[in-house]
Amino acid sequence: MNDKSHIIQNILPILLLIVVGFFIYFNSFGNQMFWDDNDGILNNAYIKNWQYWPKFFTENLIAGSGLVSNYWRPMLLTVFSFEWHLWQDNVFGYHLINTLFHIFNAILLFLILKICLKKKWPVLFLTLIFLVHPAQTEAVTYVSGLADPLSAFFIFLGIFFYLQFLQKNKKVFYWLSALSYPLALMSKETAIIMPLLIFLFEWLYKRGEHFSFAEIIKKYGPFILIAIIYIVLRLTILNFQNTLNLYNQEDLFTSRLDIRILTFLKTLPIYLGLIFYPISLHMERTIEIPTSLADPLVLGGIAIVLISIFLIVMCFRRRPEISFGLLWFFIGLAPVSNILVPVSGLIYEHWLYLPFIGIFIAVYYLIEKSITQYHLEKLLLIVVIVLVIFFSWRTILRNAEWRDPITFYKQTLQYTPESYRIWNNLGMAYDDNGQYLLAEKAYQTATSIDPSDPIAYHNLGNLYFKLNRLDDAEKYLLEAIKNDSTFHYSYISLARLYLAQGNLTHAKNILQKYLETNSPRADVLLLLSNIYENEGDFANAQKYLLEAQKLQLQK
Q1: CA distances from 411 to 279, 396, 433 (A)
Q2: What is the spatial distance between Cα 384 and Cα 358, in angstroms, rounded to a whole number?
Q3: According to the model, what pLDDT value does residue 264 have?
Q4: What is the per-residue pLDDT for 217?
Q5: Are 12 and 128 within 8 A, CB to CB?
Q6: Mean pLDDT for the stretch of residues 151-165
Q7: What SS3 state is found at 395?
Q8: What is the pLDDT of residue 3?
Q9: What is the rounded distance in angstroms from the CA atom of residue 311 to the CA atom of residue 307?
């Protein structure tokens, strides 16, 4: 290959991906951080001091904000920490990194598909679709969405190294591929499927060559061992709530496998709609849990699965690219299907980040023969260009909907007007922006949607405290405690309200009430110590101060 040919086939496509990637995401670089960005970055004490770096590997994702989740993502926290030390809360840097990882992923995808599909321009078109598809914004424009591009980066890197190993038979590439696997797992749990994707790429690269069981064990043994170690750790010392049920509750959905299978089937037509016609994009997606096969979307999902199985079997030998694309899609969705492990939602756009391009690969190779037979190459080029332009335009528009929390939550409520979480979050956004009447209305709407949740009551109480409506503040803080006697934030707010009124006894009693029925917390003990100190009871003040310091040291 001469230099000119090398530039045309490799350098120019990569430059095109870089330029297009920055062009379509540039209008996101000034977007504010909100929602999970608060717990994962802005309020996360761990990422702001490197002395806590070991805790990235021993505690949950948001432990640095004093919260508990069952996500263990030390690589994500490491990236966030590097970013914080470089530019603290400057949003430009975070959006730049998200965009760079997305562009890196597009470049890696281009390189690995070019090796396996052996067609340069179709691979470029497919990679452009991966890069510009508007459903990707939930993983790229949203700062906390970085987990998907980060894990995909290590997955693609691992596949690339493995293909280099197959091409050049150098063990160093094999071990670099194996090293990429734990890095992907430490970025996001869904990377568990990486060995299956590598196997799928190897199968395509060798064009359906038969693999013996002994060969699979020999070549994939290290990957399987890493997966087993990871699963054991997540079920034991890294099980922060309930690894096998991220909802951490028992209900019809989490307790019945058949219901979860029906639910996954119901999501498939919705996912295909998002892939081919990504117009009504929004974050707070949910669906009604199906309980029978009579649901039209469930029937649609069954049809999609049956057609896919038929195509996979029929094309397995003669048109392996079609089988490859469909298998990639279903393998990519498997970790978030809810079938084996109930995860944190029913359907999200960012769950398509890795798998969706498999559908476009399958579609292209389904129509490829007809294109060649009827000389429709120019028509295909026009269609691809129109599709890339359409997707790019939709991505730029979607970026604008993420620019600040008020814009984002109001846009989301157009599709989910009964979402308690979104109304409460909108109230907090108005509250932070000094729009107190609108905040009050949003919080009250949230409480009317779910009168049993303490958070909106707590936020209303704090709002009224800020507005010096102390009777209303006390009422709603007490309501929050009534709904959840473990919700320590409301106890603290109520104690501070009583302190503002000069009622030290009430302040002391409400905190003592919390300690009677709940495990001690350092922030509760510190406030109680301050109250005793103000009363002149220095013995109790010292007692609670020492208990608080002991808890902080244990943490």
Answers
A1: 13, 15, 17
A2: 16
A3: 98
A4: 85
A5: no
A6: 98
A7: helix
A8: 54
A9: 6
Please report where in the chains the tokens 């099980």 appear, as a residue.
239
Tokens of 530: 């301050």
Side-chain half-sphere CA neighbours of 70 within 13 A: 19
Residue with tokens 């920490």: 81
Structure tokens at 463: 């709002």
Token pair belonging to 337:
């299907």
Kindly give, in sequence order, each residue whose CB lies less than 8 Å from that of residue 259, ignoring residues fewer than 6 positions away: 252, 253, 289, 290, 291
Round the average pLDDT of the chain to a whole number and report it: 94
* CA dihedral (476, 477, 478, 481) positive or negative: positive
Q: For residue 123, give both structure tokens.
A: 């691979």
CA atoms within 13 A on the CB side of 555: 18
Say how far residue 446 (Cα) sits from the centre of its chain: 24
Q: Which helix (H) or strand (E) holds 191?
A: none
State what percent of residues in the chain have pLDDT above 70. 98
How far is it, in rounded angstroms, from Cα 227 to Cα 242?
Answer: 18
Q: How confident is the model at residue 5 (pLDDT cuts 50, 70, 90)?
A: low
Is the pLDDT confidence value at 6 over 70?
no
Strand ranges (E), 298-364: none
Tokens of 165: 């190993």
DSSP state for residue 294 in the 8-state scheme: T
Reference 298, options 255, 277, 268; nearest CA is 268
What average pLDDT does this structure show over 318-329?
96
Residue of 470, 448, 456, 449 whose CA lies nearest to 426? 456
Do 246 and 342 meet the contact criterion of CB atoms below 8 Å apart?
Answer: yes
Per the listing, tokens 């298998």 go with: 327
User: Residue 228's CB: how many other CB atoms inside 10 A?
Assistant: 10
Using alpha carbons, list the distances in angstroms from residue 164 to 41, 168, 324.
36, 6, 19
Residue (of 414, 411, 417) closest to 398 by Cα position: 411
In this predicted structure, what is the pLDDT of residue 2? 56
The token duo for 100 is 């760079």
Place of tokens 């670099």: 176
Q: pLDDT for 520-530, tens place per residue?
A: 999 999 999 99
197 closest CA partner among 149, 158, 234, 232: 158
Q: How far apart are CA 240 and CA 325, in angstroms?
A: 36
Give the torsion through C-alpha atoms of 372, 373, 374, 376, to 10 deg.
Answer: -10
Q: Are 496 and 523 in contact (CB under 8 A)?
A: no
Helical pair 91-117 and 357-373, crossing angle rounded to 10 deg:
40
Which helix (H) or strand (E) segment is 145 a member of? none
| CA distances (Å), origin 339, targets 255, 264, 393 | 11, 7, 35
Tens-digit pLDDT profile for residues 353-365: 999 999 999 999 9
Q: Which of 310, 305, 350 is nearest to 330 (CA)?
A: 305
On the CB side of 518, how many CA atoms lie within 13 Å of its CA? 19
- What is residue 15's predicted lDDT score, i.e. its pLDDT? 96
Structural contact between residues 486 and 518, judged by C-beta atoms closer than 8 angstroms? yes
